[in-house]
């Protein structure tokens, strides 16, 4: 089996306003902490999740979430 490509979630908590869009789009990846700000349940994911993770990142009104591809380049 070929190695799976690994993508990285980069999250800037300082930008988060607790809108929870990310939690709605990807509840398996995002939750709100006790302060009502987003907290990532994981920091990496593979190809199968790319669509969902991009959608979650793009749903953030303050652009607090970035996705970095296997080549180290920022996708969102
Ligand atoms: S969508 Fe953005 S602002 Fe809203 S909780 Fe998620 S990271 Fe925070």
Description of the molecule:
The structure is a single chain. This protein has helices spanning 21-25, 50-59, and strands at residues 6-11, 30-32, 38-40, 44-46, 65-68. By secondary structure, the chain is of the alpha+beta class. The chain has a single domain (6-68), classed as Alpha-Beta Plaits (2-Layer Sandwich). The strands form 2 sheets. The protein has a 3-stranded antiparallel β-sheet, with helices on one face. The longest helix has 10 residues, at 50-59. The radius of gyration is 12 Å and the shape is globular. It binds iron/sulfur cluster (SF4). Iron/sulfur cluster is lined by residues 16-22, 38, 59-60, 62, 64-65.
Give the uncertain stretches in residue-range form: none
Sequence of strands across the biggest β-sheet? 4-1-5
The count of helical stretches stands at 2
| Bound ligands | iron/sulfur cluster
CATH structural architecture: 2-Layer Sandwich
pLDDT averaged residue by residue: 97
SSE ordering: EHEEEHE
Helix/strand/pairing category: alpha+beta
Please provide the count of β strands.
Answer: 5
* Content of β-strand: 25-35%
From the alpha carbons, calculate the radius of gyration and give it in angstroms: 12 Å
User: Based on CA inertia axes, which overall geometry fits?
Assistant: globular
Say what oligomer this is: single chain
- Integer count of domains: 1
Q: What's the CATH class label? A: Alpha Beta
CATH topology name, in short, is: Alpha-Beta Plaits
Q: What kind of sheet is the major sheet?
A: 3 strands, antiparallel
């Amino acid at each position: 089996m070929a190695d799976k490509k690994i993508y990285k979630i980069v999250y800037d908590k300082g930008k988060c306003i607790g809108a929870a869009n990310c939690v709605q789009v990807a509840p398996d990846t995002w939750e709100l902490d006790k302060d009502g700000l987003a907290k990532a349940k994981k920091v990496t994911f593979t190809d199968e999740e790319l669509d969902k993770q991009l959608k979650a990142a793009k749903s953030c009104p303050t652009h607090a979430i970035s996705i970095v591809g296997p080549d180290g380049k920022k996708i969102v």
